């Protein structure tokens, strides 16, 4: 069960304006990678909410029930704010609606049994928890970024970190017993890994092209630099990512309460 109070903060962010083009320190590739991720959230988070709430009546523990409600509220507000984010970036170029539809089409091909949907949600929540932890533990991650874009990503990161175990705690109650549960959980993680990396890559490339910022191998080198060197999230998160494949995994085995606490005061609504 969670180690932190899960507190929905109903905030809004001012992200529109032509001066925000290349908002990530003037770096079009870093901007496109973050924007390409943002495009996944409204559809993705709606999927997560539905997947978790489906099993609500099998939960009896009052603390976990309260956490499910808070999770639902946090993801609902994230989805709303990333919808606003995605509308704001339309002005910079790129068919945001088509990219979002691409994710819907992808999801339509998945096994839609409630248990598998929950396993997929746990896997994506591990990704968002990893990215959140990496952002919060490295204060220079968004150095030079537009303050409002930096604020929305930090706010989202705090809340993803707070609620990182909710889906997983529900999973532990309802999962198939023994090896079948482990197999389903890791199958979902392989799917989530392929889809997350594939969609972010596709979206970022499409946005760069539409924005007139695609520079061939220079863009590829810049994206690799972003992922592997600075900030280098992919490189430094590999160990935590792999921990998911351990049979006794739980999200709070990576206890990052301290780093979350250092940011919280700035975002209390
Ligand atoms: Fe979220
Ligand atoms: Fe989440």
TrEMBL record:
Pfam family, one: Metal_hydrol
One example GO MF annotation: hydrolase activity
Assigned keywords, A-Z: Hydrolase
Domain of life according to the entry: Bacteria
InterPro entries tied to this protein: UCP07580 (IPR016516)
Protein name per its UniProtKB record: Metal-dependent hydrolase
Native source species: Zavarzinia aquatilis
